[in-house]
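Our preliminary data section would be incomplete without showing what the modeling component actually yields. Below, a chain of 421 amino acids is followed by its predicted structure, encoded as tokens that our downstream tools consume directly.
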Amino acid sequence: MTKLSTLILTGALITGSSAYAQMRVEVVGVGSNQIPIAIAAFAEEGVAPAQVSAIIRADLERSGMFKIIDAGSTLSESSPVDYGQWKSRGADALVVGSVQKLADGRFEVRYKLHDTIKTNQLSSMTQSAQAKYTRLSAHKIADDIYEKLTGSRGAFATRVAYVNENRGARDYRLEIADADGEAVQVAVRSNEPIISPAWSPDGSKVAYVSFEKRKPIIYVQDLVTGARKIVVNEKGSNSAPSWSPDGTRLTMALSKDGHTQVYVVGIDGSGLRRVSNSNGIDTEPQFSADGQTIYFTSDRSGGPQIYKMPTAGGNAQRVTFNGSYNISPRVSSDGKTLAWVSQRDGGYSLYAMDLASGQELRLADAATEPSFSPNGKYIMYATKGGGRTSLAVVSVDGRVKQRLTTQAGNIREPNWGPFMK
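Predicted structure:
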């Protein structure tokens, strides 16, 4: 380790504090067909360290899929429900619940979801959690509501990894936060750059590139124990790690043979093999959802474009044809959508493509480094504005947009984590 590299690693994540400001979320767009839903204050929720009903309300509002109706009252899951009253107030659904502090110090959170149109109960849930996981209980309830009312799994209880950098102070942090930007924790801190964080499929580890040894080296770190190991440290550049869907392999870009190409390796560093073969630069590899294909960026046609090839290697097929500069491919978890960044009209824009039809949709401008939510409904990306880099989120149909900002630092390289087991 060099004198300029002071890497902080602990047996667990370093809890966020006032020094690491929480991200602020601003919703700047909504879905076309919002579901009107009333969310009552939960009975006795003041005993918990977090207001459960407020977190649920913020989650659903942030998704852009719901029109929140202020219930104006406190209702527990055992309160009688006047369906006609709530229907007359324009609510198609009603959320009620309660919080109780248990003798062992945990908090029990109960909730029910009512359908005011069909006048019946749609769902219910009871969770017991330590104080620090109260927010997670609320996110899980929001996930349940989202799934019951939209038919798609919610992603509020997931986490995101990103790099928070202050180059002037030589301060680089790999941070982990809830999907709403709260509960920020520091996984790695260094005064040398950290780039390309990538979640393991089970959410227990993150692969990333660190320059602490004055060259890019790929590490994998356990987020529970803090233990980490070097997976790839070949001659030249080691960059852009991405996990296979089964969590047994990484694909990455290495320049060990003179020019950058795509390789695959076991997560223990064994079985390294080259899978791309061109005279150009092949980089930014990503496994497909089924693990059978690798998407990557290559300049083999004269300028950077997106290609795909079998995981075992072989002939590569070009995927993008519009625009002369297309980079950073990402594939949704259902394998249906490709997101990437294209330089057109003098700027970098985020695009999405339906892989079945080839139809493209321009989602956002001033965008780099996209990452899909695990349900495939949203894409997080880095964006520049006001001389700083922050994060933003857009739905795959382009209708719902959010901005996530902090008071300090440049936030970039987002990677949206998987569903928690």
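The first strand starts at residue 14 and ends at 15. Residues 1-12, 14-21 have pLDDT under 50 and may be disordered. Preliminary results of this kind motivate Aim 1 of the renewal.
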